[in-house]
Amino acid sequence: MPLVYGHRGASAAERENTLAAFDTARRMGADGVELDVRRTADGALVVAHDPLLADGRALVSLDRAELPSDVLELHEALDACTGIVVNVEIKNLRADPDFDPGQSVATGVVELLAARRSRAAGGGRASRPDRVLVSSFNLDTVDHVRALDPAIATGVLVTMVEDTEVDAVVERTRAAGHGALHPYDAFVTPRLVETCAVASLAVNAWTVNDPARIVELADMGVAGIVTDVPDVALA
User: Fold this and answer.
1) What does the pLDDT look like over 34-84, one tens digit per residue?
2) Which of 8, 42, 193, 209 could disulfide-link 16, Cβ–Cβ 3.0 to 4.6 Å?
3) How many CA atoms lie within 13 A of 146 on its CB side?
4) Which range marks the domain in which residue 9 is found?
5) Total Cβ atoms within 10 A of residue 58
6) pLDDT tens digits for 155-179?
């Protein structure tokens, strides 16, 4: 059975990327959660999928203290998810107002994980270290994470992977030293999974809510399934 990740937590049951969503995913038995990270004007790493608040203001234009109180910082989300896997997706798209060509968010994530790892090793925080996989659609971002700390597991997010592109996409991911490919569900095929297996790459498919498709992907041999409904995936 593949690992089951709650997409932004158990986002069909609770508001996404909140403590309630992460807690519910854990109670449902999810192996992990997927969450999104962006930055504020004062450099805080916050858990948010969209670059804008509901009122249209950009997160990157606001200080942490100006955000709604239920917006989590990454360290708070990691604390809430101790013992399960956390797939930290760094949002860094060119079209977004917080596009970060200098990779300050990636650097901040690596530094935070290193500090938490050090505290955990010294017994100063939690009894168990974080279990983290960092991913992004931005290849430069995951490459930067890998360059700063090869011990951090990394995965490359992709949307469309046409059959003619499979070999090139897999080779690019493997050659850069990443351990996983995260394709959109509609483009996950037996050939893609088999090619990744030959390259020793895990396949984590997103976002999959249909029970029949979940079974199909499990039979293909995917390593992980990202879903809004972890309870359905685990049924």
Assistant:
1) 999 999 999 999 999 999 999 999 999 999 999 999 999 999 999 999 999
2) 8
3) 20
4) 3-233
5) 16
6) 999 999 999 999 999 999 999 999 9
